[in-house]
Specification:
17 strands; three-stranded antiparallel β-sheet; 252 residues; single chain; alpha+beta
Length: 252
C-alpha cells in the first residue's frame, strides 16, 4: 500500500509540474521571439532517516529550451527587427548584467533611449540613445541611422549600432525574467559575449514564438489525463485501506 501511494503521489506531482511548463508555453504562443521551454522527468531517491532505498520520486526538470526558428512576420515598423540565423540581441537586465533575447519589438523612451521591453538595448559602448524626433532606420548589421528633425535625407548620420551576438545556444541559461544569459566567468561574474560582426537582422519584421498552439494543447490534455489517472489510483488506495481496516476490526 505504501509503495502504491508513493507511486501515485509522485506521478501526480510530476504531472502538475509538467502542466505548469506546458501552460507557460501556451500562454506565450503569441509572444514575440519566445523560445519554448522543454521539460523532462528524472528519478530522485527519497532521503530520510529510515531505509528508503526502494522509494524513488519523479521530478520534472526544464533541461533547456527549443531554439528553433519562429515564423517571420513583416510589420513595416521602423523599430521592429527580426534576428537572422543564430543572432541574438544584447540588452541590459535590471541587475545591470548583459543578457540576450530574440525579441525585436523595440521602443524609445522619453529620453530617446532604445529599449527592449523596458530594458536598454546594448550598443558598442553601452545603451543606445537616439536624437529626439529623428527619423530612424536600422541596417542589416544593426547600424542605426537617423535624420535629425527638420533636416533632409542628406543629413543622414550613424548614431549607434546594436550589439548582436551569436552564442552557443546550448550554453545559454534562461532566467526567471525570460532573458538568456551566457555562462559565468572564471570568478563567477556574469558572462558577456563578444559582438559578432557577421550577425544580421531584418528591419521592419518580427520573429514570432516557436510554440505550436496545437502541440501545446495536445500536451496539456495528455498531462491532465495522466494526472486524473494518478488521482484515481490514490482514491483506490484509500478505499483499499478502509476495507482492510474494516476486515481487521471484524476479526478482532
Amino acid at each position: 500500500m505504501d509503495r502504491m501511494l508513493y507511486t501515485a503521489m509522485s506521478g501526480a506531482k510530476n504531472a502538475m509540474d509538467q502542466q505548469s511548463v506546458v501552460t507557460n508555453n501556451l500562454a506565450n504562443v503569441s509572444t514575440t521571439g519566445f523560445r519554448a521551454e522543454l521539460q523532462a522527468a528524472r528519478s530522485v531517491p527519497v532521503l530520510g532517516a529510515g531505509p528508503l532505498e526502494t522509494r524513488v520520486s519523479a521530478v520534472t526538470t526544464t533541461p533547456g529550451s527549443d531554439f528553433s526558428q519562429g515564423p517571420i512576420e513583416f510589420t513595416g515598423r521602423t523599430l521592429d527587427v527580426a534576428l537572422q540565423g543564430g543572432a541574438w540581441l544584447a540588452v541590459l537586465a535590471e541587475d545591470g548584467s548583459e543578457t540576450y533575447t530574440r525579441r525585436g519589438d523595440l521602443q524609445l523612451d522619453s529620453d530617446g533611449v532604445l529599449l527592449n521591453m523596458g530594458r536598454p538595448v546594448m550598443g558598442e559602448g553601452g545603451p543606445i540613445a537616439l536624437p529626439q524626433g529623428a527619423q530612424v532606420s536600422i541596417g542589416a548589421d544593426g547600424t542605426i541611422s537617423a535624420i535629425p528633425q527638420g533636416e533632409g535625407p542628406n543629413a543622414l548620420v550613424d548614431v549607434g549600432r546594436i550589439k548582436l551576438v551569436t552564442p552557443d545556444e546550448a550554453a545559454l541559461t534562461r532566467g526567471d525574467d525570460g532573458l538568456f544569459r551566457a555562462p559565468p566567468g572564471e570568478e563567477g561574474e556574469p558572462g558577456v559575449l563578444p559582438a559578432d560582426e557577421t550577425a544580421r537582422l531584418v528591419s521592419g519584421a518580427l520573429e514570432g514564438s516557436n510554440v505550436s498552439a496545437v502541440d501545446a494543447m495536445v500536451s496539456m490534455i495528455d498531462v491532465q489525463r495522466r494526472y486524473d489517472m494518478q488521482m484515481r489510483v490514490l482514491g483506490n488506495a484509500d478505499e483499499n485501506a478502509q476495507r482492510a481496516n474494516s476486515m481487521l476490526s471484524l476479526q478482532g
